[in-house]
From TrEMBL, chain B:
Species: Thioalkalivibrio denitrificans
GO CC, alphabetical: cell envelope; membrane; periplasmic space
Cofactor section: [4Fe-4S] cluster; [3Fe-4S] cluster
Cross-referenced Pfam families: Fer4_11, Fer4_2
Cross-referenced CDD domains: EBDH_beta
Domain 4Fe-4S ferredoxin-type residue range list: 4-33, 121-152, 154-183
Subcellular location: Cell envelope
Matches recorded under SUPFAM superfamilies: 4Fe-4S ferredoxins (SSF54862)
Keyword Transport: yes
UniProt protein name: Respiratory nitrate reductase subunit beta
A single BP term in Gene Ontology: anaerobic respiration
Length: 335, 334
């Protein structure tokens, strides 16, 4: 149920184009910390698809998505987020090994101020920072901040409180801290220690919005978020245009060649909102993933994307976005 | 960029581990570092420390990093044993003081073992520390720019505020001289005693060496022992240069007596096989050994030899030149 305060802003058929495009609603009340607090049962669960990060090295290969279940409870001041995911082998950083990695989960928060634009899903962008609650088995939780790959750092922010349990099949982790924004854009990532996962080698979701009942929502901001999840094109035409305009020469896509000049787009729809794809096609240099050779210094010294602006009209861009947004399997919101 | 560098004379190293202890008591005796030896002395030939590090990958293949593996705490490094102090010292028992669990491996595990058949068996000591490479693979492997090389002295350091414990650096170092601290969750390594260096005092391992085997000076300091041994006399060589990292710890290769022939007489081949030394120190090792032999002979005839005088190190203070902008270092004398 969407709160009446802005339900009118949604078209009646406001279908999620991808798992993260749809609001989930936080349960009301004092946020619990214990993983087995009975109040979690009453909170709505969003099932987010976690796909391996394959776009940028170091990543992994595309394998079937796993699902993480996200529940939220907030009183408008602070919020508790409970994440559950499958991982049969619990891997702790126990101080006894040097060749072993620990299971971990992160909740990444965006702060789309001003223009309401959500940052790049992979650790944010310069000028569009993200904050991260990071929990690692055996080491606890940290409060971190980032504005692009390689920029993650500890901040003065208080580490979230945490509780965790492994039940033989997977992890349940609760992180609790102050509520920053509403609706709250969050993205999940999990690392499997048994597979030596760390850094960008992880599984992650796209941006997902958590609405907090009673927390004020700016109308413009909500409108901007809505615009970023909207897509209005024909995927079949998009696929043809992607080939015809040579995009396929640099980006790996299903059925395409093994190229890596630009990011791998085989899971583009599973990780990106249409708005991000639109922004990158319209102005490839608006944000360049740092440190991966995607940028070359221009005449004025600023980095320019290797990707040229394409001779595409707005309609054609929408077709391409419609196709890319369909790449990668989606999750959903349910009880 | 200036580069502070070290020359270790393997003909003078007696394997006493004073350097190892100087380092350990200074930097690695607590806090998850107990198993770490930023400096250690191993016996060559051998598997070394961590075990089999020469086959653990890392380094460069052209401009690409070569994959490497992570050493294991107990199996490859070896963990300091707990002893039965309580039982042996305070209980009425005849049991001697022993490690509680039998150790399987540790630093210096194969001390003096070496290789070859009597009477031609051989070994030598190889002290090892971070090479503070000119082209560090560890630095290139870190996705967080947590590793940096200082402009003023080329010392390679890991920023403990930026390290996230990913350990790409550990895999990338072909010398396996970066250690993951499982207690702090971050990686650590030899810091070339930079707090001492900044005060003009040589690194502890070099300063405490009882054999006067270690020289420290800037590579571009033409008066310094390192420049003269490495660049002028070419008797000091980097370890395993084929890894492409351009190490800045140089070794004066070990001379050896002649091997015995089938009749038990000294033959014309050295006891340490030259192709083996070439694998370790590169093709320059033959000329380096020839120079050393010629200079020893010269000195034996009572003639002057600049290079042997440097290596003999009559004055302890002459082995170190760390002056940074006029500041004099190496206070030690005689």
């Amino acid at each position: 149920m969407l709160p009446a305060a802005f339900a009118q802003d949604l078209p009646p058929d406001a279908q999620a184009l991808q798992d993260a495009g749809r609001l989930s609603v936080a349960g009301p009340g004092a946020p619990p910390l214990a993983v087995d607090d009975p109040r979690w049962d009453a909170a709505a669960a969003a099932r987010l698809s976690l796909h391996p990060q394959i776009a940028i090295t170091p990543g992994s290969e595309p394998v079937p998505a796993r699902t993480a279940e996200l529940r939220a409870i907030s009183d408008g001041q602070s919020i508790a987020l409970r994440v559950q995911w499958q991982d049969p082998s619990p891997d702790h950083s126990d101080g006894g090994r040097t060749d072993h990695f620990a299971d971990a989960v992160s909740v990444q928060f965006a702060h789309p101020e001003g223009d309401g634009v959500l940052p790049y899903i992979g650790m944010g962008e310069p000028g569009r920072p993200v904050t991260v609650w990071y929990w690692q088995a055996g080491r606890g939780a940290e409060h971190l901040m980032a504005h692009g790959f390689g920029s993650l750092e500890k901040t003065a922010g208080t580490a979230p409180e945490h509780d965790a349990r492994h039940d033989g099949e997977g992890w349940t982790v609760v992180l609790r801290g102050p509520l920053a924004d509403a609706p709250l854009p969050v993205a999940l990532a999990v690392w499997d220690g048994a597979a030596n996962q760390r850094n960008g080698d992880k599984r992650l979701s796209a941006w997902h919005l958590v609405h907090v009942p009673g927390a004020p929502v700016e109308r413009e901001r909500y409108g901007a978020l809505l615009a970023q999840q909207k897509v209005d094109g024909d995927p079949d035409q998009g696929r043809r245009l992607f080939t015809a305009h040579g995009c396929i020469g640099c980006h790996r896509v299903p059925g395409g060649a093994d190229v890596a000049v630009g990011p791998d787009l085989r899971l583009a729809g599973a990780h990106h909102w249409p708005g991000y794809l639109r922004r990158m096609i319209e102005d490839p240099s608006a944000f360049i993933v740092p440190g991966k050779g995607y940028g070359i210094p221009g005449a004025d010294g600023t980095l320019q994307s290797l990707m040229p602006r394409q001779a595409l009209d707005a309609e054609e861009i929408e077709h391409i976005i419609a196709w890319l947004a369909g790449l990668g399997e989606k999750g959903g919101v349910g009880k | 960029m200036r580069q502070l560098a070290m020359v270790i004379d393997l003909n003078k190293c007696i394997g006493c581990q004073t350097c190892t202890l100087a380092c350990k008591s200074q930097w690695t005796d607590r806090g998850g570092r107990e198993f770490m030896y930023w400096n250690h002395v191993e016996t060559e030939p051998g598997k070394g420390y961590p075990r089999d590090w020469k086959n653990a990958g890392g380094g460069w293949e052209g401009e690409q990093l070569r994959p490497g593996r992570l050493p294991r705490l107990h199996e490859d490094y070896g963990y300091p044993a707990e002893f039965n102090y309580e039982e042996a010292l305070f209980e009425p028992t005849e049991k001697p003081l022993r490690p509680i669990q039998e150790m399987q491996w540790g630093p210096n595990w194969e001390e003096d073992q070496g290789a070859g058949e009597f009477p031609n068996s051989y070994f030598f000591y190889l002290p090892r520390l971070c090479n503070h490479c000119t082209k560090p693979a560890c630095l290139a492997a870190c996705p967080r720019q947590a590793i940096y090389k200082r402009e003023e002295d080329g010392i390679v350091l890991i920023d403990q505020d930026r390290c996230r414990g990913y350990r790409y650096c550990v895999a990338a170092c072909p010398y396996k001289k970066i250690y993951f601290n499982p207690t702090t969750g971050m990686s650590e390594k030899c810091i070339f005693c930079y707090p001492r260096v900044e005060r003009g005092t040589p690194p502890a391992c070099a300063y405490q060496c009882v054999g006067r085997a270690r020289h420290v000076s800037y590579l571009d300091d033409r008066e310094g022992p390192v420049h003269r041994l490495v660049n002028e006399w070419k008797v000091a060589l980097p370890l395993l240069p084929q890894h492409g990292t351009q190490p800045n710890v140089y070794y004066v290769p070990p001379l050896s007596p002649p091997a015995f022939d089938a009749d038990g007489r000294p033959g014309d081949k050295p006891r340490l096989p030259e192709n083996y030394l070439e694998e370790l120190f590169g093709p320059g090792v033959h000329d380096a050994l020839a120079t050393l032999e010629a200079e020893i002979e010269r000195k034996g005839r009572g003639e002057a030899s600049e290079v042997l005088d440097i290596l003999i190190a009559y004055r302890h203070g002459d082995m170190f030149r760390l002056d940074r902008g006029g500041q004099q270092g190496g206070q030690g004398d005689a």
